[in-house]
C-alpha cells in the first residue's frame, strides 16, 4: 500500500506517477502547517511543481514513511534471550526467563522493548504477560514509537485495547510527530481509529510534524471509512481535500465534498484543489470539482490560474476542459505570463496549438517583454517555436534587453513563416 506525501514548488526530488516511484524520504513533503479547519490558506502549495513535477509515492513500509519499518534485525541472535523468546512467540520460555530475572526493559538496537516486539508480532498472550510483569506501556524506541504505534501499524484492535486499558497514550508522538491515530488513518484501520478517537486525546485535529492530521493521511490513502469516521468526530476536511486532489483519490474527493469540504479551499500559496488537479493533468478529478462548483477562474498568490498550471504541465485534456469552461486564455500571472507562455516554455506544442485555437495572443509580452516565441527558443523547443511562427508569431520583437529571436530561429522555419526576415538573414532586402 502506498500513500502520497505531498509536493513542493520545483523540488529537488523528481516526483513520479502514482505507484511508479521508488520509496523516498518524507522530509521533502509539502504537508506543513495545513489547517483544515480554518478559513485561511490550509497548507503549503500542494503542486507548486506545476506540470514539470509529479507526485512521488512512498510505501508505508519504507524506513522514513510514517516512522520506520517495524521488523527485526538480520541477526536475531544479537538480541538478549528475552527479546529472542518474545520475537519467536515462546510464551513458556519468556515466563522462565522473567522468573530468572530477565528485564522487561531490555532493548534491541532500535530501542524496542520486549513489549514492542510482542505487539509487533501479534503475540497477545506475551503482551498480557509483559504488562503483568510491569512492562512500560509508554516506552518509546529510538524513533519515538510506542507499543501503541506498533498496534496501530498492524491494525490489532485487541492489543490496542489492552494497551489503552493499561494507560497507553493515544496522543503519543513519534519523532516525526505521528500519533497512533495517524498510522491507523493512513492504513485504513477503521475499528482501531474509532477506538483511538474514543480514548483521551486532542482528537482528530492533532497534526504531525509536517502539519498533516489523520484526515490528511486518510485522504492520501483513499481510506473512505476512516474519513467518514473522522468527519463525524469533527475533523477539518479542507486540507484533506487538497491532499486527495494531489493523490488522485477521486472517490475521496467526492466523499469529502459530500461531507462538507469547501470546494475552493486554498493552501498557503492560494492554490485550490482544482489548481492541484490541473497541475497534475487529472481531468476526472477536475470534472468532479467543477461539477461541485469549483471556480476555474481563481488564481493563486502568484496569479496563476488552473489553466496556467495545466499549460505548464502540458496537460492537453485538462487545458481543453478549462477552456471549455470559459477560463480566460490570456490571463496574466504575476510575471505577466499567459498560459501560452507557460506552454511554450515547456515545449508543449499541442497545448499551445489549442490555446491559439481558443484565441490566445501569439505575440503577448510578459516579464522582460518576453513573448511565447522567445521562451520556446530560449528553452530549445524548436517544434513549438515553428508552430508559433506558423501562427503569426513575430521573430523581430525585442525583449527588455533588446534581444530578438532571429538568431535562434531555424532558417527553414523563417523561410516558410517570415520571408522578409529570411531575406535579411541572407543579406538580401537590406
From TrEMBL:
PROSITE patterns assigned: ANK_REP_REGION, ANK_REPEAT
Keyword Transit peptide: no
Composition bias, Low complexity: 28-40
Keyword Repeat part of the UniProt annotation: yes
Domain of life of the source: Eukaryota
Intervals holding ANK repeats: 110-142, 143-175, 210-238, 240-268, 269-301, 302-334, 335-367, 368-400
Region described as Disordered: 14-46
Cited InterPro entries: Ankyrin_rpt, Ankyrin_rpt-contain_sf, Dendritic_Spine_Reg/Scaffold
Keywords, sorted A to Z: ANK repeat, Repeat
Name the UniProt record assigns to this protein: Ankyrin repeat domain-containing protein 65 isoform X1
Species annotation: Vulpes vulpes (Red fox)
Gene assigned in the entry: ANKRD65
Amino acid at each position: 500500500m502506498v500513500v502520497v506525501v505531498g509536493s513542493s514548488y520545483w523540488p529537488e526530488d523528481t516526483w513520479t506517477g502514482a505507484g511508479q516511484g521508488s520509496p523516498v524520504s518524507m522530509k521533502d513533503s509539502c504537508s506543513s502547517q495545513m489547517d483544515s479547519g480554518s478559513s485561511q490558506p490550509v497548507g503549503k502549495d500542494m503542486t507548486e511543481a506545476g506540470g514539470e513535477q509529479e507526485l512521488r509515492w512512498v510505501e508505508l513500509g519504507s524506513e522514513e514513511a510514517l516512522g520506520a519499518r517495524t521488523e527485526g534485525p538480520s541477526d536475531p541472535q544479537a538480541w538478549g534471550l528475552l527479546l529472542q523468546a518474545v520475537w519467536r512467540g515462546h510464551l513458556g520460555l519468556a515466563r522462565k526467563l522473567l522468573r530468572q530475572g530477565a528485564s522487561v526493559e531490555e532493548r534491541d538496537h532500535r530501542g524496542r522493548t520486549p513489549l514492542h516486539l510482542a505487539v509487533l508480532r501479534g503475540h497477545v498472550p506475551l503482551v498480557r504477560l509483559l504488562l503483568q510483569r510491569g512492562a512500560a506501556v509508554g516506552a518509546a524506541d529510538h524513533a519515538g514509537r510506542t507499543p501503541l504505534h506498533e498496534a496501530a501499524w498492524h491494525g490489532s484492535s485487541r492489543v490496542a485495547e489492552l494497551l489503552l486499558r493499561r494507560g497507553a497514550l493515544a496522543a503519543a508522538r513519534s519523532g516525526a510527530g505521528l500519533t497512533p491515530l495517524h498510522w491507523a488513518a493512513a492504513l485504513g484501520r477503521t475499528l482501531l481509529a474509532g477506538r483511538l478517537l474514543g480514548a483521551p486525546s486532542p482528537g482528530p485535529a492533532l497534526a504531525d510534524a509536517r502539519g498533516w492530521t489523520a484526515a490528511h493521511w486518510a485522504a492520501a490513502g483513499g481510506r473512505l471509512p476512516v474519513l467518514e469516521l473522522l468527519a463525524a468526530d469533527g475533523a477539518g476536511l479542507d486540507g484533506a481535500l487538497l491532499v486527495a486532489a494531489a493523490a488522485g483519490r477521486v472517490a475521496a474527493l467526492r466523499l469529502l465534498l459530500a461531507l462538507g469540504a469547501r470546494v475552493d479551499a486554498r493552501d498557503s500559496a492560494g492554490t485550490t484543489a482544482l489548481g492541484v488537479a490541473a497541475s497534475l493533468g487529472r481531468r476526472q478529478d477536475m470534472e468532479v470539482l467543477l461539477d461541485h462548483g469549483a471556480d476555474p477562474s481563481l488564481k493563486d498568490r502568484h496569479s496563476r490560474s488552473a489553466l496556467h498550471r495545466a499549460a505548464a504541465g502540458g496537460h492537453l485534456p485538462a487545458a481543453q476542459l478549462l477552456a471549455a469552461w470559459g477560463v480566460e486564455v490570456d490571463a496574466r500571472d504575476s510575471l505577466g505570463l499567459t498560459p501560452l507562455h507557460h506552454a511554450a516554455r515547456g515545449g508543449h506544442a499541442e497545448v499551445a496549438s489549442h490555446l491559439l485555437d481558443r484565441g490566445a495572443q501569439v505575440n503577448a509580452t510578459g516579464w522582460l517583454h518576453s513573448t511565447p516565441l522567445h521562451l520556446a527558443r530560449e528553452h530549445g523547443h524548436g517544434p513549438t517555436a515553428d508552430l508559433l511562427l506558423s501562427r503569426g508569431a513575430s521573430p523581430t520583437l525585442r525583449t527588455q534587453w533588446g534581444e530578438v529571436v532571429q538568431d535562434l530561429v531555424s532558417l527553414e522555419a523563417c523561410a516558410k513563416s517570415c520571408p522578409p526576415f529570411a531575406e535579411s538573414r541572407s543579406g538580401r532586402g537590406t
